[in-house]
Amino acid sequence: MQRLWEFGEQWVTDRPNTANLYRAWYDAAARKVRYASLNTADLEDAKRQLAAFVLKHDAMPKLAPAGVELEAVLERYWLQHGIDTAAARSAKAAIGMWKRHFGSGALVSDVTLESCKAMIARWRREGRSDGTIGRYLGVGRAAFNRAVKAEELTYAPPVPTVTSGAEYSHVATTDQMAGFLNAIERPHLSLYCLIRIGTGCRDDAARELGPAQVDLTRGVIALNPDGRAQTKKRRPTLKLVPTLAQALQEAGEADPYVSLHGKRQAEIRAVWHATRERAKLPAHFIPKIIRHTMATHLRTEGVPEWEAQGWLGHRAAGTSERYAKFR
After folding, report:
1. Which one of 131, 198, 209, 282 is most buried, by most CB atoms within 10 A?
2. How far is the C-alpha of 3 from the C-alpha of 13, rounded, in Å?
3. pLDDT tens-digit series, residues 135-145
């Protein structure tokens, strides 16, 4: 047996009479080396599995940024937190962008205001919007803060804030909305749109909605499922509008409702884009236009700001008040 690769306090090794590689570590209490099969004979695959296991489960000593690899902090954040969030896909993309810019072997101490500014400039040259860049930076900031809270870092490096300079201001006309709905060929996209129109919810809340969140008898829909902690993007509980109630009743026990061939949809951009092309609508007609349009109608119809705030799941009054001009 030989140590083929080490990571932290564990290593990859081979064992007699098997092609599979093993994860090995010293058990101080039993004073012996223990083994666990990685169920692969490929060394690179074994390395990835070992690194993932150590990053997720093993404790790390509290170190200064100069002694910690940036990739380890980002991966630990992903495995211990990001992978379980509603925005997992976005978090994974952000981590990839950080790793791509700083490269393999970079230390946390390499993250400075100047290096972050260079990274932001690079992303802008590549055509990323300030809103997207702000999300990328937020994931990195969250990863450093998690490491400090877990006492793996002595302090978090500075990460600047970038906010989108322009508000999304587009509102769909009734004809545009009707044209889009009439161009839909996939039932799951039709139901997705009805959920968003009937509740004004965000994209992820619509895609994740299931029968357990809907009480057809009492006519109530809970956008935040049991067991999911509320975040700053609150998901309220609302009365069901008749059109949506009928659509959900016809959908039966599909869980979630927005499913294709029995599978949950991680995103609907491709089918949305194809439908928009058939309807001959402009490029700004993206999924968020539904929520923005419904919020605008609330204020157009004179709904009080505090009520619109609760319906949209806004925590701060100012967010809903951006639609006050439509009173």
Report:
1. 209
2. 5
3. 899 999 999 99
| pLDDT score of 166 | 57
| DSSP calls for 267-325 | --HHHHHHHHHHHT--TT--THHHHHHHHHHHHHTT--HHHHHHHHT-SSHHHHHTTGG
pLDDT in tens, 37-71: 888 999 988 887 877 777 666 666 665 777 778 98
Percent helix, strand and coil across the chain, each to the nearest 5: 50, 10, 40
d(C-alpha 164, C-alpha 325), whole Å: 21
Q: Is the dihedral of CA 159, 203, 197, 312 positive or negative?
A: negative
pLDDT at 306 over 80: no
**CB count, 10 Å around CB of 75?**
20
Contacts of 174 (CB under 8 A, 6+ apart): none
Tell me the one-letter amino acid at 254: A
In angstroms, the CA 207 to CA 241 distance is: 18
Structural contact between residues 296 and 326, judged by C-beta atoms closer than 8 angstroms: yes
Element at 136 (helix H, strand E): helix 130-149
The total of other beta-carbon atoms located within 10 Å of residue 236's CB is 19
DSSP state of 156: P
Q: Which amino acid is at 276?
A: R
Q: How far apart are CA 78 and CA 95, in angstroms?
A: 8
Contact 128, 113 (CB under 8 A): no
Instruction: Reply yes or no on whether the pLDDT at 30 is more than 70.
Output: yes
* Distance in angstroms (rounded) separating the CA atoms of residues 13 and 34: 11
Beta bridge partners of 22: 13, 37
pLDDT mean across residues, the chain: 85
Least Cα distance to 90 among 145, 139, 143, 128 occurs for: 139
R_g of the chain computed on alpha carbons? 24
Tell me the two tokens of residue 295: 């919020």
Q: What is the pLDDT of residue 257?
A: 94
